[in-house]
UniProtKB/TrEMBL annotation:
<feature type="binding site">
    <location>
        <position position="226"/>
    </location>
    <ligand>
        <name>L-aspartate</name>
    </ligand>
</feature>
<dbReference type="GO" id="GO:0044205">
    <property type="term" value="P:'de novo' UMP biosynthetic process"/>
</dbReference>
<comment type="pathway">
    <text>Pyrimidine metabolism; UMP biosynthesis via de novo pathway; (S)-dihydroorotate from bicarbonate: step 2/3.</text>
</comment>
<dbReference type="GO" id="GO:0016597">
    <property type="term" value="F:amino acid binding"/>
</dbReference>
<feature type="binding site">
    <location>
        <position position="55"/>
    </location>
    <ligand>
        <name>carbamoyl phosphate</name>
    </ligand>
</feature>
<feature type="domain" description="Aspartate/ornithine carbamoyltransferase Asp/Orn-binding">
    <location>
        <begin position="159"/>
        <end position="303"/>
    </location>
</feature>
<dbReference type="InterPro" id="IPR006132">
    <property type="entry name" value="Asp/Orn_carbamoyltranf_P-bd"/>
</dbReference>
<feature type="binding site">
    <location>
        <position position="268"/>
    </location>
    <ligand>
        <name>carbamoyl phosphate</name>
    </ligand>
</feature>
<keyword id="KW-0808">Transferase</keyword>
<dbReference type="Pfam" id="PF00185">
    <property type="entry name" value="OTCace"/>
</dbReference>
<keyword id="KW-0665">Pyrimidine biosynthesis</keyword>
<dbReference type="InterPro" id="IPR002082">
    <property type="entry name" value="Asp_carbamoyltransf"/>
</dbReference>
<comment type="function">
    <text>Catalyzes the condensation of carbamoyl phosphate and aspartate to form carbamoyl aspartate and inorganic phosphate, the committed step in the de novo pyrimidine nucleotide biosynthesis pathway.</text>
</comment>
<feature type="binding site">
    <location>
        <position position="172"/>
    </location>
    <ligand>
        <name>L-aspartate</name>
    </ligand>
</feature>
<dbReference type="GO" id="GO:0004070">
    <property type="term" value="F:aspartate carbamoyltransferase activity"/>
</dbReference>
<dbReference type="InterPro" id="IPR006131">
    <property type="entry name" value="Asp_carbamoyltransf_Asp/Orn-bd"/>
</dbReference>
<comment type="subunit">
    <text>Heterododecamer (2C3:3R2) of six catalytic PyrB chains organized as two trimers (C3), and six regulatory PyrI chains organized as three dimers (R2).</text>
</comment>
Length: 316
């Protein structure tokens, strides 16, 4: 594996190996006074974010630092992108400055793949590129951390029914999860109004439903999505109030889930909109487990791309 750009190219074996390695990194660090492994000493990892982020940027930085990499954060607002430098020139500059890995978030779908292309030399060398969220396309490390959280809570993904609810059309998290969870053996149902479903969703490995109330009793997990008003150009249909009434996970709806079912949200959450205030803090909610798993999953991805295809176990 040279890059991680989407979950659509990940085999079941590759995905399972990444989740297993994430758990190995977690175990290797548990109980340590000093959370530092020598695994990536001498490697330089750069986060390059053209959109805001809390969880993804911070957890990649923590992951790199816990593995002793030199981690450099580049943001569009403080880089020469603000002076008009092109994405291509910025990417080639960061490669020339010594990046072994570029972790890229960008509002344009396909930007990380384009960067991987621009920075690959004729010999096939160049930095590993990790997609940290590109437009409405994909967010593969989010899907991996969600899959790890589900595996830990449910035991296995095989045959589990998982609902992904809400603003599917703007959600890179939904697309990455639909593909990865189905690769791992889950049945995925998208629950959304027709206006928030993307063209071509019939090609995804999912079923589609318009009724959250009808789906909740039968699912093992429900993944609520943030409503991405910033990608709606001021328009919002159904209205925010109607959306919340029909697709919000409130206390009544939480009661429709079976006892062992869990609630995921990738964050940031709009409490009171897609998820109720108390639902987000209920024992069924996995929001902070997802964040913790995000650090270990990102360690596993950095290990796989920068060290190789062995299991991390041999290096711990
Ligand atoms: N889940 C997620 O991508 O969160 P951030 O935007 O805070 O990174």
């Amino acid at each position: 594996m040279r890059h991680l750009l989407s979950t659509q190219g990940l085999s079941r074996d590759d995905a399972t190996a990444l989740l297993d390695d994430a758990e190995r990194f977690e175990q290797a660090l548990t109980g340590r006074e000093v959370r530092k492994l020598p695994t990536l000493r001498g490697r330089t990892v750069m986060t390059v974010f053209y959109e805001n982020s809390t969880r993804t940027r911070v957890s990649f930085e923590v992951a790199g630092k816990w593995m002793s990499a030199d981690v450099i954060n580049v943001s569009a607002s403080s880089s020469s992108a603000g002076k008009g430098e092109s994405l291509r020139d910025t990417a080639k500059t960061l490669h020339a400055a010594g990046a072994d890995a570029l972790i890229v978030r960008h509002p344009a779908s396909g930007a990380p793949a384009q960067i991987a292309d621009w920075t690959t030399t004729p010999d096939g060398d160049g930095p590993a590129v990790i997609n940290a969220g590109d437009g409405t396309h994909e967010h593969p490390t989010q899907a991996l951390l969600d899959a790890l959280t589900l595996r830990q809570r449910l035991g296995s993904l095989e045959g589990r029914r998982i609902a992904i609810v809400g603003d599917i059309i703007h959600s890179r998290v939904a697309r990455s999860n639909a593909h990865l969870l189905s690769t791992l053996g889950a049945e995925v149902v998208l629950v959304a109004p027709p206006t928030l479903l993307p063209v071509g969703v019939d090609q995804w490995p999912v079923s589609v439903s318009g009724s959250l109330d009808a789906e909740l009793p039968a699912v093992d997990a429900v993944m609520m999505l943030r409503v991405q008003a910033e990608r709606m150009n001021g328009g919002f249909f159904p209205s925010a109030r109607e959306y919340s009434v029909r697709f919000g996970l409130n206390d009544r709806r939480l009661g429709l889930l079976h006892d062992d079912a869990v609630v995921l949200h990738p964050g940031p959450m709009l409490r009171g909109m897609e998820i109720g205030y108390s639902v987000a803090d209920s024992p069924k909610a996995t929001v902070l487990e997802q964040v913790r798993n995000g650090v270990h999953v990102r360690m596993a991805v950095l290990f796989r791309l920068l060290v190789g295809s062995d299991s991390a176990g041999a290096h711990l």
